Every structure is written in C-alpha cells, then in structure tokens.
Amino acid sequence: MQDFVQLFSEYNIPGAFLVNIEITLWSVLFSTIIGVILVTMRICPVASLRMVATAYVELFKNMPLTIIMVFTVLGVYAQLKLGFSSIFEVNFFWLAIAGLSLYTAAFVCESLRSGLNTVPVGQAEACRALGLNFFQSATQVILPQTFCGSVAPLGNTFIALLKNSTVAAAASVATETSTMMSEMIEKHADLIVPIFLIFALGYIILIIPIGILTTYLSNKLAVRR
Fold first, then answer.
1. pTM to 2 decimal places
2. What is the count of structural domains for the chain?
3. In Å, what is the CA distance from 191 to each residue of 103, 195, 205?
4. Which residues contact 115 (CB under 8 A, 6 or more apart)?
5. CA dist 88 to 12, 94, 166, 172, 198, Å?
6. How far is residue 196 from each of residues 7, 23, 174, 183, 193, measured CA to CA in Å?
7. CB of 161 within 8 A of CB of 24?
8. Which of 27, 117, 166, 202 is the most buried (most CB within 10 A)?
9. SS3 of 119, please?
10. CATH code at position 121
11. pLDDT category, 159, cuts 50, 70, 90?
C-alpha cells in the first residue's frame, strides 16, 4: 500500500487518465462525424463516392495506428508544417486527436454498415414511394434506425478507441498514461507491479461502465421486427 501512496503522491496519475479521456471524447466526436459521412457515401447511388469511401475505409482499417500517429508528427507537422497551435502541448494534443479520429472513422463506418442490416429493405422503398430523395431518406429514415442497430459494435469501437488513446505517446502527447507509465518505470524499476496494477485497474474502471451502458442501450434500442 505504501508503494501506491508513493506513486500517487509523486505523479498526477488522475490527470494522465483525464488527458486520455479528453483525447477519447474528442476523437469519438470527430470519428463519428467522419464515419457517418463515409457510410452515407458507401450507400449512395453515386459510384465514384462509393469508391472513395471504400478506399478510405480499406486504407485506414488495414494500416497500423502507430504509423498514422507517427505520420501526423513527422509528416503533417514536421514536413508539411501544418499544426493547430503554436503551443507545443496543445498542438500535439490535437494532432493525436486528428490521427485517432481518421483511423477510428473507418471502424465507425463499418459498425454503422452492420447496423444497416437491421433496417428492413422496405424502409428505403417506402421513402422512394413517398418521393423522398436519397439525402432525405438517409438522414430522416435510414441513418436513425442504423444507429439503433449499431449500438453494440459502436460501443466496442469506442472502447477500442479509449485503449488506442495510449498510442498518443507516438504523437508526443507527454502527459497521457503510456508516457507517464514509461517515466514511472524508468525512475521506479522496483515498483513495476504496482505501476502495472494502477494503470490496468484504471482502464478497467473506465471500460467496464462503457460496456455495461452499451449492452443496456443495445437491448433498449434494438430494432423490433
């Protein structure tokens, strides 16, 4: 117990988890927006848009996240000189969010596509019979039902996103958990087990409620046939 007290007194561990939570929440927002756009493109009647969306999903879905995160630093920032702020910490915080959002959007799109299977084909036919165009059908009828049928896969995607936020160390976000864990191990090599338990239990505490909420919402919003 004394080891845990020592570590918590020396390091701002809750603050490190808070950084990961902030990165996750912003990434959830942006990846959901991009994912909705992608899934709309994949079901639209325009072949070129379907091809672009499919290429995006296949590219980011099969590319390691670490490569994307490193590219945001070495490619986008170092080579292209593009950034979000002149403040170092703020800039790399948002670069990490950008990389995570672009990567996760591909999986959000696939999760939403799985939810499309819960929408009866007759819904789209009814929309056409009522004279609704594709955009109206998608936004007013198809996508709302798709979200109801995608709660479980979306929940799993966002849980993976929370765990993937530890890769933010590759984007030089120096205050998140993986960076702090490495620093703690370097300075306290004799306390590896307590350090591991702190961060493992921290993520378990964060993830289990998300899983419970996802299961509840999935059952609550399931499409009844």
1. 0.86
2. 1
3. 34, 6, 21
4. 145, 146, 147, 148, 149, 150, 153, 154
5. 20, 10, 19, 9, 28
6. 12, 22, 18, 12, 5
7. yes
8. 27
9. coil
10. 1.10.3720.10
11. very high
Which tokens sit at 40?
Answer: 């709309």
Local confidence band at 131 (pLDDT 50, 70, 90 cut-offs): confident
Is residue 148 exposed (0-12), middle (13-18) or buried (19+ Cβ within 10 Å)? middle
Residue pointed to by tokens 């590759």: 170
Instruction: Give the pLDDT of residue 175.
Output: 57
Quote the longest CA-to-CA distance of the chain: 70
- Burial (CB < 10 A; 0-12, 13-18, 19+), residue 83, is middle
Q: Which of 51, 30, 75, 42 is nearest to 171 (CA)?
A: 75
Q: Which domain, by its residues, includes 119?
A: 1-221
3-state secondary structure of 111: helix
Q: Which two tokens stand for residue 86?
A: 């002149």
- HSE at residue 156, side-chain half, CA atoms within 13 A, is 10
Tokens for 80, please give them: 């292209």
